[in-house]
Design brief:
Elements (H helix, E strand, L loop, with lengths): L17 H17 L5 E2 L8 E2 L10 E9 L3 H8 L5 H13 L5 E11 L4 H18 L2 E9 L9 E12 L14 E6 L8 H11 L7 E2 L4 E2 H5 L7 H10 L2 E6 L4 H7 L7 E5 L7 H10 L3 H7 L4 E7 L4 H10 L4 E8 L6 E4 L6
Parallel strand pairs: 4-5, 11-14
Antiparallel strand pairs: 1-2, 3-6, 4-6, 7-12, 7-13, 8-9, 10-12, 11-13
Length: 356
């Protein structure tokens, strides 16, 4: 069968560079090393990450918790701004803060980066952010994969995803089974949009309003791009501290679906919650999305976190103590509602948000 003349086809000519991948691994090593825990065995480069599970012997009945997620279209903002060392905080936040709601301590995390072209410095910057966030959350960056997908993704395009594993003592498991009427709803401030609703946000700012990322926005005190790229707040350590020192019954990570839908996930059917919007003022980014895009309040609340990234349901007797502990941990928090002895398992937001 005749071929294409004397032309030699190689993996590199197909768009995949083994050398670039190796260079990326070398550049990321120092950051991965900083996100270790004593239980991690070996180093980067193995086929599988190893974690010494003998520590689980100290648990009477250890429950493993796991979570997988990505960052969604927020990566588009990072790519357009050519800033890649913060998106890792969003990935880690989406992962470990899903674990902590059940009281689980995150143990380790693995990441997956797919890109059209491996640019070693860019991949290393992404991993740097992931590793720094892992260190802040107290979990190890145990391993990962970088895949080059020419033809599927453009040379400057990438996506990030990951999974994480944690552990909680069975008796300490948080959730709907512990929630009681009279529990206080404590809201923890978000750092901004976090990593949800960016398809709506991009449509409003870019397609409807015609703004660019370099636009200085007085209400935000920054450029639009800087505000949109603000990293997700990490709640893992503060929430674990809260669970260890107060009578917390349940927690909810406010991500896609908004406040009401996510809080309803940790409510028993025989109880409900009433939340007072008047207890907080959403940050200006939320108001801008609503005003510029003529987005209704129900749509905003179902899509964005509206200034609350995590919620805890705490026994009334411990509510003040919980607020003190969160303040010690550097997390702005406040009472925003109460669990009611009303059948339905629903969350009702009442009143209007406090104006500035």
């Amino acid at each position: 069968m005749s071929g294409g003349g004397s032309h030699v086809t190689s993996y590199a000519s197909a768009g995949v560079s083994i050398e670039a991948g190796d260079r990326a691994v070398e550049l990321m090593k120092e950051w991965v090393e900083k996100a270790r825990r004593p239980e991690v065995l070996g180093g980067i480069g193995g086929f599988a990450g190893l974690f010494d599970a003998s520590q689980l012997k100290r648990y009477d009945r250890p429950l493993l918790a796991t979570s997988a997620d990505g960052v969604g279209t927020k990566v588009v903002i990072a790519q357009r701004m050519d800033v890649h060392d913060t998106i890792g905080y969003d990935l880690v936040g989406m992962l470990v803060d899903d674990l902590v709601v059940c009281g689980a301590e995150p143990l380790f995390l693995t990441d997956y980066i797919a890109t059209g072209k491996v640019v070693p410095e860019r991949v290393a910057a992404i991993v740097k952010g992931i590793a720094q966030a892992c260190e802040e959350a107290g979990c190890a960056l145990l391993g990962g994969e970088t895949a080059e997908h020419p033809g599927l993704l453009g040379p400057d395009e990438y996506d990030v995803a990951g999974s994480t594993t944690g552990v909680v003592e069975a008796e300490a498991l948080l959730g709907a089974h512990k929630v009681e009427a009279g529990d206080v709803v404590i809201a923890m401030a978000s750092s901004g949009l976090h990593a949800n609703g960016y398809s709506l946000v991009r449509k409003v700012f870019f397609d409807v309003a015609g703004w660019d990322l370099e636009r200085e926005v007085p209400e935000l005190g920054s450029t639009l791009g800087e505000a949109l790229l603000t990293p997700t707040r990490l709640y893992a350590k503060p929430c674990l501290e809260l669970a260890a020192r107060t009578d917390v019954h349940a927690m909810s990570h406010i991500t896609g679906g908004g406040f009401a839908a996510n809080l309803a996930r940790v409510l028993p059917d025989h109880l409900s919650v009433r939340v007072e919007r008047s207890t907080w003022t959403p940050g200006p980014i939320f108001g801008l999305v609503g005003e510029l895009g003529s987005v209704s309040r129900p749509d905003l609340e179902q899509t964005l976190n509206m200034g609350v990234g995590m919620v805890a349901l705490v026994a009334a007797a411990d509510a003040d103590r919980a607020l003190e502990i969160l303040a010690e941990q550097g997390v702005a928090a406040w009472r925003c509602g109460e669990v009611l002895d009303i059948t339905g398992g629903e969350v009702e937001l009442v009143g209007d948000y406090r104006s500035v």
